[in-house]
Design a protein that fits this description.
mainly alpha, Growth Hormone, Chain: A, 16 helices, 76% helix, globular, disordered N terminus
């Protein structure tokens, strides 16, 4: 990937308010993908349909998100994100308005594609923040921004459950639409200008994103770590509701949704992971966070009868997943400064595939082997990530393009 184009705005240390705005924007954007999950039962009852049919709302949103990752995120290297992000958010807000007023389940399912695709606005903002930051603080900036994104993922379920409990699922979508359009207006005014773009066609842009994944060993390794981490994350969060709805807990949807608050506290470690990446401790932190993935499923297994151990397991799992994710993204943004959106697209497609596989296999394993099977599966995925981290630590790799002279340790 050519990096020879002149850049009109050199990276600088971003102001704290602007970094926090990026974090808030990522959280609000990605939350739109998750609001439906805790209210599917209410949606099914509202339209008199089955839970399986209502579940297609989430499925189509996830399909839309995958499409957005592959075809919208690379546009961040071609078009000014200062205009692109607000435009994507405006379209998303329109989809949310239609969702709130949907006359039938078919409309809600179809519009889920638009809402899901628009949720990738967060994945346009993360590489933008990385591009605007200098090398010395890039990991810290990515960590803060990713904290906002991860909090959005985890808290969306809690917010949705609470709002639906006191009103209805339609109000959840209406609330999301208002926040999204407000965010679009703020970002249109506050996002800073960026450097010049490569003058290439859209088809060439997409091909180059694939080429990056095929030719960059660092991106390949980090994509594997990301896919394994999100697979373990999805194995747990997809099946947790089944555990908590049954004995000995018998929790309702609102209470189950509140468990997102436990996961959110684990997401706060992302800021520290970014700082450690800036210091070049990436191999050590990768091994530690991957080991936490595997270790977390022991207290989660005990959590089938102990709420305290379940909470401990959730904290360990989320620290491992979020720390690994921030380490990964801090490293891949050293590649091809003019192609960070394409790098992020390639990485996130792999990350999302890992999560989708983990979610599907986790649900199947729960049906056949219950909670013990889920924990064995999750621990196995974590062990695979830890083994890969050991192998990675034992090998010497060339310094990534654009990396500090000392390279990752």
């Amino acid at each position: 990937m050519s990096d020879t184009m002149a850049v009109t705005h050199a990276p600088t240390r971003l102001s704290r308010p602007l970094v926090l705005l990026f974090a808030l924007a990522c959280g609000i954007s990605v939350a739109n993908l998750y609001y439906a999950q805790p209210v599917l039962d209410n949606i099914a009852k509202s339209f008199g349909t089955s839970s399986g049919t209502a579940g297609l709302v989430v499925t189509f949103a996830q399909i839309g998100y995958a499409i957005g990752l592959a075809f919208l995120v690379p546009l961040g290297d071609l078009l000014a994100r200062r205009g692109l992000v607000p435009a994507v958010l405006a379209v998303t807000a329109g989809g949310l308005v239609v969702s709130a007023a949907a006359p039938g389940i078919g409309v809600l399912i179809a519009v889920g594609l638009i809402v899901g695709a628009g949720s990738v606005a967060a994945q346009l903002l993360v590489p933008m923040a990385a591009s605007l930051a200098d090398d010395e603080h890039r990991g810290h900036v990515v960590g803060v921004v990713m904290s906002g994104l991860l909090l959005g993922i985890l808290l969306a379920r809690t917010v949705s459950g609470v709002v639906a409990e006191v009103s209805s699922w339609r109000v959840v979508y209406a609330m999301a639409a208002v926040m999204t359009i407000a965010l679009a207006l703020v970002l249109r005014r506050r996002l800073p200008p960026e450097g010049e773009r490569e003058h290439i066609g859209y088809a060439t842009l997409l091909r180059s994103a694939v080429k990056l994944l095929v030719t960059e060993p660092l991106l390949q390794r980090r994509a594997i770590f990301g896919a394994l981490g999100f697979a373990a994350f999805s194995v747990f969060w997809t099946t947790m509701a089944f555990l908590l709805a049954g004995g000995p807990y018998h929790y309702n949807d609102l209470t189950i949704g509140l468990f997102g608050l436990v996961g959110a506290s684990g997401a706060l470690c992302a800021n520290f992971a970014g700082r450690w990446a800036d210091r070049g401790w990436t191999k050590a932190t990768t091994l530690v966070f991957a080991a936490l993935l595997a270790a977390s499923f022991l207290p989660l297994w005990w959590g089938r009868h102990s709420l305290a151990m379940l909470i401990v397991g959730i904290l360990l799992l989320d620290v491992g997943v979020q720390g690994l994710q921030v380490t990964n993204q801090s490293m891949i943004y050293r590649l091809a400064p003019l192609a960070r959106s394409r790098v992020n697209s390639a990485y996130m497609v792999c990350y999302f595939i890992g999560g989708a596989i983990g979610s599907a296999v986790g649900s199947s394993i729960y049906n056949s082997h219950h909670w013990a099977g889920v924990c064995v599966l999750g621990a196995g995925i974590g062990a695979a990530a830890a083994a890969a981290a050991v192998l990675d630590a034992l090998r010497r790799h060339p310094v990534a393009k654009g990396a500090p002279a000392s390279g990752p340790r």
